[in-house]
Structure formats: C-alpha cells, structure tokens
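Support request, please re-run this one:
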Amino acid sequence: MYILDYNQQLNLIREMTQLRKDAENWVVYYHHPSTNEMWKSFFPKATENDPGPKILRTEPVPEKLEDRLDTFLKGDIRENAIGLGIELSVNPNKWERIIELVEDRYRSYDRKQLSLFLDNLGVEEGEELLKELGHDPSEYGLDSNKLKNLSRRSKLIRFKRFWFF
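Re-run finished. Output below.
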C-alpha cells in the first residue's frame, strides 16, 4: 500500500516507531505497533535541488516485478498505481521489462489504475524525465529510438485497454 498525501503520511508516522534512518539517501523505515506492518518512507525522484515526491509504503513489496504489478494495479486504490509508477520511473533499466509485462497482462489490470501507473512511470516522456533526473539514457542501454519505441508501446497499451477491453 502506498500513501502519497502528506497529512496522511504525517498522521501514520506519528503512530509508528522509527527503526532505522539512512539520512544520506533520505530513507526511513518504520514499524506500526498495532498492525505489525513495516513501512518505508523515501523520495525516489530526489535530486540535488529537489527531493521530489515523498512516498510512504508498506514493506516488503513483492520481489518479482510481475507480482508487484499485479498487487498494485489490480485493485482500485489510486495511490498504489501512482506510487508504483513514481517508484519505478527512476529505474529506466527496468522500463523495457515493465512494458513487456504490461503488454502481456493489461487486460487483467483496472483501466484507471493502468492509466495512472503509465502516467507516473514517465516512459512516454522518457528523454525529458531522464534529463530531469540527471541521467544519461545510454547508461541504461537506451537510445532515442528505444525511448520512442517504449513511448509508442505505452500509448498503444492505453489505447487497447480503453477500447478493446
């Protein structure tokens, strides 16, 4: 579960016990005593000038990407789709695999969840997103053609999910 609203995050953090903190990477782990859940607070899009959006989510998440997508895109909690998209947007080395998985499974995902996820994944604006984060696309084996192809495939998934099922 992802929580993106600052006030909700603050209220939940007040109920929890801080376990450890990595100040260098802006990551904090918590334990909620009444639910016995572990939580992670982090800023996936942090740069030198801007921390980006803060995410609070339960820990651990499924390790396999397929299971992670299924867990967060089949439900109807919009923060899950947005949070997962933001978190995975900073992993351009996984974009191609993510798009492949979504192409294979798009029919099983909620239409709105899928749209929110793709909006926040940022593949359709890949070059701009990588520049914003200060990354060189070639570091991830991506060139202009691959980024355009990923963008096209993402748009095609949206089209198929909206019109065909």
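The chain has a mean pLDDT of 92. Residues 144-163 form the longest helix (20 residues).
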